[in-house]
Amino acid sequence: MVKYIEKEFKTIINKMKYIDSWFWCRYTLNPYNGCEHACIYCDARSEKYYLHPDLDNEIIVKKNVKKKLDNRLKNARTLLPDVVATGGVCDAYQPAEIKYQNTRQILEVLFKYKYPVCISTKSDLVLRDLDILSKIADDTYCTLSFTITTFDDEIAKFLEPHATLPLKRIEALKKIKEEFPKIQTGVNLMPIVPYIEDSDENLDEIILKTKEANCDFILFSPGMTMRDS
Ligand code: SF4
Q1: Which segments of the chain does DSSP mark as H helices, in order?
Q2: Which of 122, 123, 164, 224 is the pocket-test mutation for ligand 1 (most atoms within 8 Å of CB)?
Q3: Whose CA is nearest to atom 8 of ligand 1?
Q4: Is the pTM here over 0.85, yes or no?
Q5: For residue 94, what are the contacts with CB-CB under 8 A and spacing of at least 6?
Q6: By C-alpha distance, which of 122, 127, 82, 120 is closest to 104?
Q7: Of 67, 96, 69, 95, which is closest to residue 84 (Cα–Cα)?
């Protein structure tokens, strides 16, 4: 049983020293701490990110995100508008978002202050927010990608037990591109779990389906991070 814990946080948005070369963002912002998708390869388990140890079952919900972010951006002198990546370490569209809508509230503020966004997710719940994402795309820039590393349901369920199944993710990308062509869409082809996902057939299928969905890019990383945990 997953437990949600609402908590105040001091920092609402992080400015990076350098623009991230993978996700092209200057800022990162995580609406939740912990991730119910519970992927077995999740890099967020590494000590490097200072998350709590039971991150699959205990989701910390950041309180008052809308007010906090609005105050922070309203008074910002050093935070010039630039790409904000949400949910880089903990998926911004995990099930907690259905109830708390932290991500949606954050997007409303980012739109207000004209900050472009970069969203990576494994949940088709993101479709709920296409109204606001398309406005951000019209106004500045919006890129939206799904991680897809297999189309085999059994393997996907084993690796990413509570995420949307990959076929639904690619269908969502197709729909987004058809309805809102200004949103830049893509597939994060990573991590590739050795011996399970590294066959030519698997990689070819993902590349082909990404092309058929008219995506703009594939972000490819041939391997997986092997840190602690
Ligand atoms: S969706 Fe991302 S953050 Fe969530 S458990 Fe999976 S890899 Fe980790």
Answers
A1: 65-74, 96-100, 102-112, 130-139, 153-159, 166-179, 200-212
A2: 122
A3: 42
A4: yes
A5: 32, 35, 36, 37, 59, 123, 162
A6: 127
A7: 69
Residue with tokens 């927010």: 129
Contact indicator for 149, 159 with CB cutoff of 8 Å: yes
Q: Residue 122 — φ and ψ, nearest 5°?
A: -125, 20
Alpha-carbon distance of 81 to 15, in angstroms, equals: 11
pLDDT tens-digit map of 46-103: 777 777 778 888 999 999 999 999 999 998 888 999 999 997 789 999 999 999 999 9
Write out residues with Cβ below 6 Å of ligand 1.
35, 37-39, 42, 44, 89-91, 122, 160, 163
Q: How far is C-alpha 165 from the chain's CA centre?
A: 15
- What domains, with CATH codes, occur in the chain? 3-220 (3.80.30)
SS3 at position 145: strand
Query: Residues 188, 166: contact at Cβ < 8 Å?
Result: no
Which residues are CB-neighbours of 182 under 8 A, at least 6 positions away?
134, 137, 138, 142
> Pocket of ligand 1, candidates 23, 32, 37: which has the most ligand atoms within 8 Å of its Cβ, to mutate?
37
The residue count of the chain comes to: 229
